[in-house]
Design a protein that fits this description.
Layout (H helix, E strand, L loop, with lengths): L3 E3 L8 E3 L3 H12 L6 E3 L2 H8 L5 E4 L3 H6 L8 E5 L4 H10 L3 E4 L4 H12 L7 E7 L6 H13 L5 E6 L6 H4 L22 H7 L2 E2 L2 E4 L11 H14 L2 E6 L5 H9 L2 E7 L2 H14 L6 E7 L6 H7 L4 E6 L4 H6 L9 H9 L6 H4 L3
Parallel strand pairs: 2-3, 2-4, 4-5, 5-6, 7-11, 7-12, 8-10, 8-11, 12-13, 13-14
Antiparallel strand pairs: 1-3, 9-10
Length: 361
Amino acid sequence: MPAEKGVRMSGARPLLVSGDADLIDDILRLAAANGVEVHLATDAESARSRWSLAPLVLVGADAAASVAGTRPTRRRDVVLVGRDPSPEDWQRAVALGAEHVASLPDAERWLIDRLADSGEGMPRNGVVVAVLSAGSGAGASTLAATLGLAAAARSTRVLLIDGDPLGGGLDVLLGLEGEDGTRWPDLCETRGRLSAVTLAEALPRLHGMSVLSWGREGPASAPVESWSAVVDAGVRGFDLVVVDLARQLDPVGELVLARARETVVVASNHVRTAVAASRLAASVQSLCSSVGLVLRSDPKGVDVEAVLSTLAIPVIGRVPFVGGMVGRSDAGEPPSLRDTYGRAVTRLLPLVSDLARDVAS
């Protein structure tokens, strides 16, 4: 067997140091289950050049003593892997600076997750923002989509999630209905860990923003387990996850609200919508970290200041009513960042909780 073997020559890959053919086969099998490519070094010397660069280092029990003898640089994400670890293996793990000793086959599931994490690079720890409409026509979907586009325009990795299976569809709003890519019905059987890289590559994109919508066919809901997998992958792989959430407070809504850094309630200056905004904010306050109001001013509505005086919700900002937006959407045109509405939403971006630090330029 050659001293070094790589599946490809570019990109940072996990490093496996071992000469045990059976262990090598097991690790490569686990890595392949997640589409992760591993660099193999069969001796301590050939591992030197990649020791500090690899996102994860797996040292076989057979190679632990020789690797420790080279006095490698102390680093994080080093794991000693073997079968039926002995007291000597634990001692060698300490000498290596290994943070964990993984015993196969018991630790297979754990190793699969660690390999998958390494294949995604450094996690992004993205911010989740939930957007809720206080009433029909308040414009929550348009605000969510425009907020995502405004962040993407600042070179932010954005995932926009359609959380209303019975709505009109964010892909329709954005003119993506005819684009290939994964929709919610494709993910309804997803459980456990979902690769952030796989998700990002599978979704249709608009101006740098990835979009998960419902499409025209398939079930009208997704299990909370699937939602959990998608949101977790979004947080790991994106800087900002915007969820256009349905108003019903079911387990899915509770999951998203619990993960959200900020919940934005969108209302217009109409009496019933204002009352609904107050009731909605009161209902979600116990479920989320922070709730703020964005008011869309409608020329046909009541006095804006009068509406604001009746609402016990912190006001994040205001956006104007822009005639013709529905017509542009029907024509397959996404929201613009250049009209008065788009400019107002762009100004909102750094005002949404801690987003000034996390995504504003």
